[in-house]
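User: I'm preparing a small set of examples for a lab meeting where we compare how different chains pack in three dimensions. I only have the primary sequence for this one, and I'd like the structure in token form so I can line it up with the others. Please keep the answer compact; I'll paste it straight into my notes.
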Amino acid sequence: MSLSDEVSTIGLTHDTAPVVVRWMYALLLDMGGCTEFVAGEGFRDNDIAAALGVLGLDSNVEPDGSGEGQPALYRRARKYGEEANASFYRRVFLELRDKRKAHLERFPDLKLPEPLCSNVERLGNLVGLDEVDRKILAFSAMLASDTLLHECSRFIGPISFNRMLRVLANLLECPQDQVHDRLARSGTLLKAGLIETFGRWAHREDLGSVLQPASTDLAFQLCNYQGDPIGLFAGSFRFAPAVKILREDYRHVAPALGMMEQYLHTALASGQRGVNVLLYGPPGTGKSELTRLMASLLKAELFEISCTDNDGDPIDGSGRLCALRSAMSVLASRRALLVMDEIEDLFSAAEGLAAIFDDRPRHKGWTNRMLEENPVPCFWLTNDIGALDNAYVRRFDMVLCLENPPRDQRKRLVEVASGGRVKEPAATRLAEHEQLTPAVITRAIAVAERACPTASDLGPSVERLVDATLVAQGFSSLAVSGCQTLPSFYSPDLVNADQPLHELVEGIRQHGEARLCFHGPSGTGKTAFGQWIAKELGRPLYSRRASDLVSPYVGMTERNFAESFRVASRDGAVLLLDEVDTFLQDRRTAQHSWEVSAVNEMLTQMESYRGLFIASTNLMDSLDPAAMRRFDLKIHFGYLKPEQISALLDQHLAAIDLQRPATLALARLLRHPAVTPGDFAAVSRRARFKPFGSAGEMIEAVLAEASMKQPCASQPIGFVH
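Assistant: Understood. Below is the structure token output for the 721-residue chain.
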């Protein structure tokens, strides 16, 4: 046996599949690759030469395949583009031709290696590939995974789409028109997302860049995987995790959830095509969990389109669309649902010139058709609905905004997720934070359970974890946004209002809706009474200040108004807006157009609101006249009467275990014309870190607070507008 025969046999037996060697011969001999393969009197790739049995023709290579002269010759030929010696080139060409003839006699059939052969066969049966489709798919997988074949394909030079058709027709021994039909956009290979080709106008570097499998993961799986065909797509889509929450956790969207369940049940039973559901809302509100719950209710398999491949690298929008096409084809015959998360990148891909220069596939038309024809019902998830054009949105069968659940559901989630190990008042503080999403709650509880496995109360740990997350997200901490608690002895009788407050609450309890304006000096108990109303009615309180609503960006103030009323209406909450004089000023005094538009939006929301709305202000005279007409009742909160001062003093003294003294200071306090509940509240806060030694000290402190005000003045405390 000659040296070349020995090398070829070793390569065929241990390294390179016979069909790959056959394709390599064809690339060099039929497609002109031999011209680039031979350099001077050597080869550009000795491994390929060894696999094809011609390495022995290089005199610089020792019988064991090594040689000191060869690497220098190889580098010189590559660097300077040294052309092949005519006599050496002819010897190599003739030897390659003889070797191919012997190879074809030994391996007459285009038999694929295992497990590639079985995988292509089973996948072909699953998605409906014919013989030519299967040959193309197998070749693309080997081209992507076999380094020798890929390097050999580079010797035929830059290649266009049309030349690729001729190359494949030769290698796969198929008519060129059949190859063309299989690689059309309407062909099964591309519709199923199994391979990708690039435009006819594009000249790529080599064959492997014009014809590619949908992903390198798929190519590897086809060549190596053994098992169920679904496993071939482990890098493209995968089974979704089991659902962890209950239907009761979605009570705030119960009607929509029931309709969705019935619609998908009918669609799965009838095999309806083009079924798509769009879920949007802030991160962590349970969109993914909702899809898992729905699959569980429908007893259907749920698959998620992967955002990362098996190596953990992110998959771009084009790759995810290929994965979606594959999933649609592979799962068409199963009772299955699909989830495509983070769809922003899919629906905002570059169009026009940007698509050309960025070399991105323009898939808008395909996406529209898919939304109308997909055989597997699909959930589409996004955190940013603004990224989707209306032309896309209108094609979804159902659109559901999944917001943060109401306060009572957030509290229930805390209790259930912690198994009761988050005690009061931590559970209430957590539930009160409106930006605290279910995902943050459950993750913090899970971490706290592992960090403090023996703790009976996880509240402090959970609050610490949640606070860090909220601040990192740009939200206020639990301490800042937590509800303002009323003293245990609070009573409307200790507020000097010009209306009977108990009767007011009973009237609201019967009718359910009202628009109230609380006005009067600062500290007279306007906000506290709003909190008491919410507590008496058993409703959540949504309190907003001017700083929460007024934005420096055009249109954002109006949007904040609308969002506040919408959320309060959704949750049946009492909406309390403080400092409304900041954004309800008389439009006749406006200096900018946006000031007028903000007032207009506020008036519109007030007019259409069907809940309990309370506005408070220290500057009644500055409000727009149209706003005044929209309030059902305007209640003035004034300074305390002497008997109210006396009763409130007794309550605060009892709270710190002090007796009322009969002093001159007490008489001055009872006669003071500008005492408010806020004065007592400020003094009580001071006592927490600087306790009073006697009741007299407390009375003097309240007098000092009250003396800072002018009883008849209407000047606001804070910024002057």
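A couple of notes for your slides: Residues 79 and 492 are 93 Å apart (CA to CA). The radius of gyration is 38 Å.

User: Perfect, thanks.
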